[in-house]
Design goal:
Length: 354
């Protein structure tokens, strides 16, 4: 397959195939995710290998879209594998680079498909030119001789098909909206939980450091008070105590201790501000959980509406089949009546001729 077009390291996730809600880690640690060009099939692929196992083997199509659901997380759906892949990057810049390269490769895949279609169209055109022209008369449809019954049946069937197709599209749209919103909230919750665990670890470490610094601060304060008492005693005794050089040394030590105390106070203020940020993140996590619960309730409501729509759809199909049966019976009766009228007309013509 050749060298990769682009590679990046990321944590790989797959959507739970049973619930279609939760993310399942596909790798225990960050792995290499690469874009390749398959020259034999003229397609582009995303491939990631963990050990001896292929975690991702996805063929890129023009209809695929890579969606950024958070600062470091993105996802795309693979309809052929019937799954959704999620990638968690270490930095926002790596996610941006992968997203831009995904767009470029998707555009290249679109151009490659168009070239392949153009070649197929040229080949089919050449075959149609070389084919015999005598088949044109055979391919013409024979004249239709029927009464209004079949036309009415066809009209009814087409209108019912249009109604059913629109109902199916509406159901698919409802399900896709619910699934996309829920997947985005799951990814956001995963990011918040990751940040929360990091903040909890930093907070524990900061609390331990605060305790140590408090003890050091108390010791420094005692040392400062002792030095201040010594300076006061020296000043009270005047020339009977140590020399002026000792006073200067004590004063310098006192100033250094006061500067150290200020630095420790600033560090304590910084840790307190980090603690406030942790509480904000905790509130955001609770809000995300609340929104996820609301989305689950909405999803339950959507599933109930989908079940009702499916029941209505089944009832509509049964009603359509029943109407088609009645129309078919009416057509058969009309055919018999027309045949009888035709015999009667021929009999009248013979009587008139006599």
């Amino acid at each position: 397959m050749g060298k990769p077009i682009f590679s990046a390291r990321a944590h790989v996730f797959q959507i739970d195939p049973t619930t279609k809600r939760n993310w399942i880690p596909a790798s225990k640690h960050a792995v290499t995710v690469s874009f390749f060009y398959d020259g034999n099939r003229n397609v582009y692929r995303i491939i990631s290998v963990g050990g001896t196992k292929a975690i991702i083997n996805c063929t890129i199509t023009p209809s695929m879209t890579f969606t950024r659901t958070s600062q470091k997380f993105g996802q795309w759906a693979d309809s052929r594998a019937n799954t959704v892949y999620g990638l968690g990057f270490a930095t926002e810049q790596q996610l941006h680079q992968f997203c831009e390269r995904f767009k470029e490769v998707k555009e290249a895949a679109r151009l490659a498909r168009e070239k392949s279609q153009d070649k197929m169209e040229l080949a089919s055109t050449a075959l149609s030119i070389a084919a015999p022209q005598d088949l044109g008369d055979e391919l013409q449809s024979p004249p239709v001789a029927c009464v209004n019954g079949p036309e009415d049946k066809m009209f009814r069937s087409q209108s019912a098909d249009i109604t059913l197709s629109s109902e199916k599209e509406r159901i698919k749209k409802m399900l896709s909206e619910g699934s996309v919103c829920e997947i985005n909230l799951e990814a956001e919750l995963f990011t918040l939980q990751d940040s929360n665990s990091k903040l909890v670890a930093a907070l524990h470490e900061a609390n331990n450091n605060v305790e140590q610094w408090k003890k050091q601060l108390a010791a420094y304060q005692e040392e400062t008070e002792r030095l201040r008492d010594q300076v006061a005693d020296l000043e009270a005794h005047g020339g009977h105590g140590p020399s002026d050089m000792l006073k200067d040394e004590l004063t310098q030590s006192l100033e250094e201790l006061e500067a150290l105390l200020k630095a420790k106070d600033e560090e304590i203020h910084i840790l307190q501000s980090k603690k406030a940020e942790y509480h904000e993140m905790e509130q955001e996590r609770e809000e995300a959980i609340h929104r996820l619960q609301e989305m689950e309730m909405r999803n339950v409501e959507l599933e109930r509406r989908v079940q009702n729509a499916e029941q209505n759809l089944a009832a509509s199909l049964e009603e359509r089949d029943r109407l088609e049966g009645e129309v078919q019976r009416a057509i058969e009766i009309l055919d018999v009546k027309i045949f009888d009228l035709n015999d009667l007309r021929q009999s009248l013509v013979k009587l008139i001729d006599k």
